[in-house]
Amino acid sequence: MNGSRGSCSRRMEEAARILVEAGVVERGTFRLSSGKTSNLYVDARRLLGKPYYFKQVSILLADLVSQVEDADAIIGVATGGIAWAAAVGLLREVPVGYVRSKSKGYGLGRMVEGVDPPMNVVILDDVATTGGSLEAGIRALREAGFTVVAAVVIVDREEGARERLSSLGVELWGLTTLSCIRGVMGESP
User: Fold this and answer.
1) Other C-beta atoms lying within 10 Å of the C-beta of residue 41
2) CA angle, 116 as apex, 136 and 96 as ends, to 5°?
3) In this predicted structure, what is the pLDDT of residue 36?
4) Whole-number pLDDT of residue 1
5) Cα 79 versus chain centre, distance
6) Residue 182's pLDDT is what?
7) Is residue 162 within 8 Å of residue 170, measured between CB atoms?
8) CB count, 10 Å around CB of 31?
9) What is the spatial distance between Cα 73 and Cα 95, in angstroms, rounded to a whole number?
10) DSSP alpha helices (H): ranges in the chain?
11) What CATH class does 10-184 carry?
12) Which of 173, 163, 164, 166 is nearest to 123 (CA)?
């Protein structure tokens, strides 16, 4: 259902193939937001400019989110998760919001926009490495009065995010994993 290391379901392989075919998986040496370096970078934001692929991934994400029980709304992590949350919310016909990494310091100064607590929410981001951005979002959502029932990402890089979120009592659901992407590319995980 939510994917695990070492195994790639048909859905996970399909998502990996879409990302590779869309040209959003880059080879090289990259510094990630977690501070780690990697020889593969998944730039899921580039899918936004490729409507066919954006739609395909959105449909797969909406299907995955539909398997999460008791979710009243989808919350995107700013900025990578906002467009994905909007697409999934439209497809699932559920409310959408987003959570900032810090208060904007003016206006209402809210960390969470688009929806009001109390609600059970799924937090959504594009890629998870160590889970730091998701953890910050979960903490902000809880502080604002929301209940986070699951975290969903397009790509779980399998570098600790699942375990980090589990320690917070939140299950991470990955549409695909870096291992599946490597497999589709003909590389060993």
Assistant:
1) 15
2) 75
3) 86
4) 42
5) 11
6) 96
7) no
8) 10
9) 5
10) 10-21, 51-66, 82-92, 132-143, 161-166, 178-184
11) alpha beta
12) 173
State residue 34's pLDDT score: 81
- Please, are residues 16 and 184 in contact by the beta-carbon 8 Å criterion? yes
Consecutive sets of 10 residues in the chain, 189 residues long: mean pLDDT of each? Answer: 65 98 96 88 96 98 97 96 98 97 82 96 97 97 98 97 98 98 88
Whether a cis peptide bond, with omega within 30° of 0, leads into 79 is yes
Phi, psi of 143 (to 5 degrees): -60, -30
All residues at 6 or more sequence positions from 13 whose CB lies less than 8 Å from its CB, including other chains: 176, 180, 183, 184
Token representation of residue 34: 């977690």
- Token pair for residue 61? 């994400």
Report pLDDT for 4. 43
| pLDDT reported for residue 7 | 84
What lies within 8 Å, CB to CB, of 107 at 6+ separation is none
Sorted by where each begins, the domain ranges of the chain are 10-184
pTM comes to 0.94
Contact, 149 vs 72, CB < 8 A? Answer: no
Residue-level length of the chain? 189
Among residues 118, 149, 148, the alpha carbon closest in space to that of 136 is found at 148
